[in-house]
Design goal:
This protein has three helices and five strands, in the order H-H-E-E-E-H-E-E. The protein is of the alpha+beta class and about 160 residues long. The chain folds into two domains: about 60 residues; about 70 residues, Transcription elongation factor, GreA/GreB, C-terminal domain (Chitinase A, domain 3, Roll), CATH 3.10.50.30. Helix 1 runs antiparallel to helix 2. The model has no long low-confidence stretch (mean pLDDT about 90).
């Protein structure tokens, strides 16, 4: 019998903190729905199952609970710490500058862990990407000077911080 084991997620501590903070926010939002439930439940309607305001509040609570569950699963699946990474190579927590060989334009990425609530965020200075994103997988583990092929473009890996 083959038993599938759960692989630990590698997540930056700052992202774990953000997930815990969001869980706290969600729990407060769910509690705050109490009066809305009471009001919606007591609105006049011919039958209980036709109470659209109640269904809206219930659906909102369901979405919040699903998000909370997902965040808890992510945290429970995360490794205690990120393993030691190769020196001088792109890893979790690295800021990487690439230059497009065709256009000579530079772009900077910050490599977060397997999960981050900031994936795709462009801070103006860098774009935050998950380690599991296609672009990060293209340069993960590479060193300065390497040529990176991604989709139909070729980049030079210029800098790792």
């Amino acid at each position: 019998m083959l038993i599938k084991t759960k692989q630990e997620l590698l997540i930056l501590e700052s992202d774990k903190i953000a997930a815990r903070e969001r869980i706290t926010e969600i729990e407060a939002e769910i509690i705050a729905l109490g009066p809305e439930f009471y009001e919606a439940f007591n609105q006049t309607s011919e039958t209980w199952h036709d109470n659209a305001p109640f269904e809206v509040v219930r659906d909102h609570q369901t979405l919040l609970a699903a998000e909370r569950y997902t965040l808890r699963e992510i945290l429970s699946s995360s490794a205690i710490s990120i393993p030691k990474q190769k020196k001088g190579a792109v890893g979790i927590g690295s800021t990487v500058t690439l230059t497009d060989k065709k256009t000579n334009k530079s772009i900077t990425y910050f490599v977060a862990g397997d999960w981050t609530p900031n994936a795709g965020l462009n801070t103006g200075l860098k774009i935050i990407v998950s380690r599991k994103s296609p672009i990060a997988e293209a340069f993960f583990g590479k060193k300065v000077g390497c040529e990176i092929k991604f989709r139909d473009r070729i980049f030079n890996l210029d800098k790792i911080e």
